[in-house]
From TrEMBL:
UniProt xrefs under InterPro entries: DNA/RNA_pol_sf, RT_dom
Entry keywords, A to Z: Nucleotidyltransferase, RNA-directed DNA polymerase, Transferase
Keyword match Kinase: no
Transmembrane segments: none
Domain Reverse transcriptase: 1-134
Organism: Toxorhynchites brevipalpis
GO molecular function: RNA-directed DNA polymerase activity
UniProt name for this protein: Putative reverse transcriptase
Cross-referenced Pfam families: RVT_1 (PF00078)
Length: 134
């Protein structure tokens, strides 16, 4: 099982960075990501989450409370992002319309080609997932 890598021109990478900065600003200003979410966030490592968990366990133990934990690991999560569902969620979160439109156009009708030994396949539609390596 292989995941395609997006090879983008420098100007496209710059555009992605600007888009990401705008999206992160919106997310942070509106407290969309709960403080308990540590995955894929700057300054929030596995170590931080483990320390948080350890402290919570010790806190509960001190007052004879039980502690329960649920762990979630979605296999190939980025390969399985449902485009229409992502756009729907962005709209529900009142994401600025211009950002939703850009993201929709970025994901819509994406294609890929396989190149092996100087032979290229035809274009194939990418129905789900988000680009990697861009």
């Amino acid at each position: 099982s292989y995941r395609p890598i997006s090879l983008l021109p420098a100007i496209s990478k710059l555009f992605e960075k600007l888009l990401l900065n705008r999206l992160l600003a919106f997310i942070n200003e509106n407290n969309i990501i709960p403080p308990e979410q540590f995955g894929f966030r700057k300054g929030h490592s596995t170590i931080h989450q483990l320390l948080r968990l350890k402290n919570k366990i010790l806190e509960h133990k001190a007052v004879s409370k039980s502690t329960a934990m649920a762990l979630l690991d979605v296999e190939k999560a980025f390969d399985n992002v449902w485009h229409d569902g992502l756009i729907y969620k962005l709209c529900l979160l009142n994401t600025p319309v211009y950002l939703v439109k850009i993201i929709r156009s970025y994901l819509k009708d994406r294609t890929f080609r396989v190149s092996l030994n100087n032979v290229e396949s035809g274009n194939c539609l990418i129905p789900a997932g988000v680009p990697q390596g861009s």
